[in-house]
Each structure stands twice: as C-alpha cells, then as structure tokens.
Description:
Order of helices and strands: HHHHHHHHHHHHH
Number of helices: 13
Number of domains: 1
Strand content: under 5%
Number of strands: 0
Shape: globular
Amino acid sequence: MANRKRLLRTGLGVAVIGVVAYFFATALADNWGAIQDAELSWGWWAPAALVLFVVAVGISGWLWGRIVAVLSQQHLPAKEAVRVHFSAWLLKYIPGQAGFVVNKVAWGKRRGLSRLLVLISVVYENAFLLLGSTVPMLAILLVSRAGNGDVTHVVWFAVAAVLPLIVLLHPSVFHRIVNRLARRTMKRDVPPEFFLPSKAVWKYQLAFLLPRLVNGIGVVAISVAVADAAPTSWLPLVAAYAIAGAVGILAVFVPSGLGVRESVFVLFAAPYLGVEQAIIVSLAARVLATVADLLIAGAYGLLTASARRRGEAAAPAAAPELEDDDSPITEKDVREA
C-alpha cells in the first residue's frame, strides 16, 4: 500500500510537471515568434526586467508567509515562505488556478497547519493583490486621462467592477462570508484567531502594493528601451500593467492569463505608447515574465535543496486545527474558498 501511494504521488508529480512544462513552452514559443516578427533586439533592459519580475514574486511570497505567521502565531522563515510560494506560482500555468491553492494547502498540512487557516491566508493574499492592483492604479489612470472620454469610461467601468472586492475585504463582511463557507464545508465556525485584525488588514494591503510597483518598474524599463516612453507616462504604465495582472488573475480558466493580460495592457497603455508599440511592449513583457518563471523554478530548486540539507523541508509544527481538518483537499474546497 505504501509503495502504491508513493508511486501514485510520483506519477501525479510527473504529470503536473509535464502539464506545466507544456503550457510554459507554448506561452514562450507563441510570444517569442511575435517578438521575432517585430524584429526586436534585446538589450540591458531585458535582464533588468527579468530580475525585477523574479523579485516581485519573491516579495509576494514573503508577505504571504507573514500572513501565515500572524494567523498561526508561529515563526515561518522567509526562505520557506518564498520557496513554497515559488512552487505554487509555477502551477499557475494549469488552467483553473487550483494548483496554486492546493499546493499551499498541502504544504500547510505537512507542516501541521490547519487547512482552513492556509486557505484563508491565500484568500487574503489574492484579495490584497487584486485591490492593490486595481483601486490605486485606476485612480492613477483616472487622473492621468482626465478629459479623455473613451478611456475614462473604461476606467469607471473597471472601478465599478472592483467595488464588491473592496466591500469583501471589510473585516465584518469577510468574517461573515468565510464563516458561512466553513459551515457548509466543515460544519463549523472559523476560530476568530484565523482572521487578521483590522489594523493588520490595512498594513498588509499597503505592503502588497510593493510587488506590483516592482513589476511596474520592470515594464517601464521595457517601455523606455523599446518605445522611448516619456517620463510622464511611467506612472500610468505601472498602473496599466498592474491592472492587466489583476485581470489575468481573474481569468482563472486561461493558463497564466495568457492573452488576457496583454490585451488589457494594450488597452490602457496605447494612449501613452501608441497601439503598435504597446503591443510590442506587452509581448516583450510576456516573454520576459515567462523566462522569469524559469528562473523562479531554478530558485525553487536551490531553496528546496538547501532546506533538505538543513532538514527543514518537512518540519512539523503545532497549530490550532478544526476537528475535521484532516479531510482530503478537493477542488470543490478550493472553489468554495
């Protein structure tokens, strides 16, 4: 039985890696062809953007780890949080985004953390990223494009679309919704300590602006080198890329938001770069973001090897759990969470 379970886990791991590799290669090949057609020559900006894209993912992982540490009242090393986030990040190429969530929940279970606690941490993480990628960024675009009716109408429509998310993050509303889901799936209320205090919610919301800004700086570097973007356009381009990333996250049935992110970026960046240059910048950013994921895979391998040498890869830790928290993790749980 043990050998069969081990074989099943190995087979599942190989299958997941195969699926991720397929979508990764497809994304890189499709966009690389378009870049070649544009006769784009690579320069200093490519490695600069690569580093910034990787750093942004690492910051997100560190911040997620801080949320887990606060909720669980345990020390979580930054390296471990980043390592787990890197491995979950690579699963974004599987349509549905379930792999990202299940990966973190499975890690939490091995570490002795409540499944529900980790699920709530992921909900917080995505809510902070989405709000940070939309609300302040939409405000930037509204100010920068004041008087331009077409763009302003699009922006106002986007503002209306994110209002429910703002309401959701209010502690009382968030607690009520999560408790209702927990009653349906686990027949229990969620312990109060599984929620962030109001002060911490706003602190992390501000902190999650940092990875979006780092990503945006990478896109500005590309835009300056490729399209000679004027300094007055830099902040709106950061906002355009952040909003495009948020829409890519919401496009859960598209591997890594392929095509969706680029379309949204072109929509908001065209007034500053022109449609043709905005398309080239979006394609270059997609290629570099995909290559950055390859670097993230390498970094994950190094961090995992280091953790195993220190005996930390599967270190257990005590944590408050719901009584039925050892039940199998299913995609239904992920969707409902």
